[in-house]
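Researcher: Quick one. two chains, 570 residues in total.
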Amino acid sequence: MSRRLATVAAALAVLALAATDAAGQAAVRFAAGATATQYRVRSTTGDDTETLGAPGFGAEGVIAVWRIALEGRYVQAGLEPGATATATLARDAVEGHLLLAVRATPWLSVSTGPLARSYETTLGSQRWLLWTVRARGTPVLVPDAVRGYAELWGALPVDIDVPESWNSGWGGDVGLVLAVPRLPLWLRLGYRFEQYRLGDGTRRETIDGATLSIGAGRLQ
Amino acid sequence: MLRRLSVCLALAMPVVAASARAQTATEQLQYGIEAYRNLELDAAVGFLRRALSAALDGGLSAAERASALSYLGAAELFRSRRDSATAAFRRLVVLDPRHRLDAVVFPPQILQLYDDVRRSTRVVVAVAPADTTIVLRRDTFTVRLYAAAYHAIRARVIRDDGSTLLPLYDGEVGDSLLLRWDGLDGAAVPAAGRYTLLVESLTPSGAVARIVHFPLEVEVVQLDTLPHPPAPADSLFLPEQQPAGPALRTLTTGLLFGGLAVALPSLAGSGGEASDARFAVGGAIALGGLIGFFHQRPGRPIPDNIVANQTLVGAWRDRLDTVVRENEERRDPRLRIRTGPPVTERLETP
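Model:
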């Protein structure tokens, strides 16, 4: 898994170096960065609750032409059971999404694309493949320096390795992006929250945590 | 049908005749030059005289006439008719005092005779713009005189009745001379009307050898003043101070987004289970909104807009100054002076 992360990070680093040139052109926009996240998973089935958490690391990037953008993100974490959990196995979590976004206005964009997540334990693996539809607002807080963002999305299952039937899934991501003055660098701080309900509400999967990213290029 | 055809032919006849005449004169010139080169001097003189004859004269351009006279003078000298050669060269000098024979084409004895004739011919040509306008009491109307030889001239502007409006020059002329006239008469009054610039070439004894008549038509012109450009409309000015709206919107957005970060888990009924990091993130967003509020606080000067407005006003003032200057010039009366073709009149030889 560390090889996979290294490969993705290397690819994005190369793209990030090119970002400084691409950023100067209005027609094509590119940005790439590294992500550190607080990865928290809470799985509740009936009265049983499993809580796992660990720092996650990954990368993210965006390439945009005119109003259309392709956004990607990859994160992996070795999740450890929380102190209150009982009989919970550690998991390796890997997740990523790929979104096709259209900017409707300077501060509002809509996007859609797959979200994939995999949990690996000593007993086996569990894969989630979802399709998401998202809306994101990015108002300016400090001109040329800080933008806020809030994204809400809904999910539909494509392929999930769980016995329970699908009820609902949604998520949100709220934060701000700081553009470093006179440099093509940015810093993103956000908080994300996702929740999936299965088996008529008997099972509830919740993922949340803060995210800190730093990158090069023009994110917005 | 026949009647219509005859009308068309009648209309086309003068054009066809003029074209044929021009062709004939040019052809006669070519035949004359060719005969001269073949040393058929009698034939050359015949062709050249026909090309220059009154009936065909209009068919030659000034350069062709000069060429015809050059070859005619040379041919006559080779025929040992020095007087005829001198007469041809004199016509050439009067036509264009600045003309010089080509030393490659003509032998030295021809060049020598031509120079002798030129030096002994007292004539000038006057060159001036066909139509010009001068500002009274600031500009002058200029006529350049080119002389064939150093001699005395007398230049004056005369009225239609022959009386003198203003004497311009009385003295010697060398190669050329610039005559200036301010457009005023002797009483410093703008001289609107029809006049003639008269340039008399004088012999050493003071007799008038030739007179150049240069028709002038002078008209007083008063130009209309231009309207002042309108001042920039208020709608073109950008606000120079921050209005309250953007600052309040930024603050509201920051607080709203910060609150959303905190409340996101509560929307799913999981507020108690969520990470406390959301409070830090929510606080950071709210702080960003607060910074944005102070960055755009109401009443804060907007330097870019101030510069843009100053540029707008400056550009308008520049246009206004240009129009004011132009109007000051337009208030000055002007004279429009049109010239006709000069005519040289010979009174005494040379």
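The first helix of chain A runs from residue 2 to 22.
Researcher: Thanks, that's what I needed.
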